[in-house]
């Protein structure tokens, strides 16, 4: 039995207005109160953890060779606080995931073409950060893994679901979803404000978060991460919160 629709991609209205703009479309035109706009801007300056020290360690591990830029990890946004959408509560926190059978769920409700394409690019066993969004303090709370690659999202055909799409056909579904499974909580909560501090510093000194999509495509609820981005953020859980 499929789970209720929980994960939100607010680009559905805009996408339907301009169906031809599939790849370039993002959720930047939507009206949701994304946390990136609400967060207090940290000062641009040196990354407190010292990205250069992190880089030195990584180069030592890899012999100093530059890694080819590929997206092999992901960041998945979900709302941990109750919010009704067409009469349905879209709340789904990492604790809700942990409470599912086998701590596994389908990641449904994505209605943005670029986010959908990222879902379709996911490979079995790849890991993703579980990110609490649209809440008082957004940030990374845990790690999940892909346990089933992209397949048709059942909610697009359910007229009672907030993300029903009358233009999608079962013989040629527009929207996809994957299954994810809880791996572990991060050792500490890694807030958006802290990640943003590093992003601004890395934009100045060429660190791994300089082009992180969390800040260049803020509205997307499905975002790819390079190995370097994933590793750097993971290293933050070992540090004391600032």
UniProtKB/TrEMBL annotation:
It comes from the Eukaryota. SUPFAM superfamilies: PUA domain-like (SSF88697). The keyword Phosphoprotein applies. Residues 73-235 form the EVE domain. It is found in: Nucleus. The keyword DNA damage does not apply. One of its GO terms (cellular component) is nucleus. Residues 10-28, 56-65 have a biased composition (Basic and acidic residues). PANTHER family: THYMOCYTE NUCLEAR PROTEIN 1. Specifically binds 5-hydroxymethylcytosine (5hmC), suggesting that it acts as a specific reader of 5hmC. This is Thymocyte nuclear protein 1. The lineage of its organism: Eukaryota, Metazoa, Chordata, Craniata, Vertebrata. The gene is Thyn1.
């Amino acid at each position: 039995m499929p789970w209720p629709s929980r994960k939100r991609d607010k680009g559905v209205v805009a996408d339907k207005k301009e169906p031809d703009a599939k790849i370039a479309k993002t959720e930047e035109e939507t009206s949701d109160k994304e946390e990136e706009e609400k967060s207090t801007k940290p000062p641009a300056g040196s990354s407190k953890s010292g990205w250069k020290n992190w880089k030195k360690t990584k180069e030592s591990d890899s012999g100093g060779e530059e890694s080819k830029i590929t997206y092999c990890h992901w960041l998945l946004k979900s709302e941990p606080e109750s919010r009704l959408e067409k009469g349905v509560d879209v709340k789904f926190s990492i604790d809700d995931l942990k409470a599912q059978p086998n701590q596994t769920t389908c990641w449904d409700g994505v209605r943005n073409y670029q986010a959908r394409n990222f879902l379709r690019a996911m490979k079995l066993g790849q890991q993703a950060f579980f990110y609490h969004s649209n809440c008082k303090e957004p940030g990374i709370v845990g790690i999940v893994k892909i346990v089933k690659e992209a397949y048709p999202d059942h909610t697009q055909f359910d007229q009672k679901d907030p993300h029903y799409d009358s233009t999608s056909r079962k013989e040629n579904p527009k929207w996809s979803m994957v299954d994810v499974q809880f791996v572990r909580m991060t050792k500490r909560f890694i807030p958006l404000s802290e990640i943003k501090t590093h992003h601004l510093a890395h934009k100045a000194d060429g660190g791994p978060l300089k082009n992180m999509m969390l800040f260049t495509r803020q509205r997307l609820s499905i975002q790819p991460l390079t190995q370097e981005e994933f590793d750097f953020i993971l290293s933050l859980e070992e540090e004391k919160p600032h």
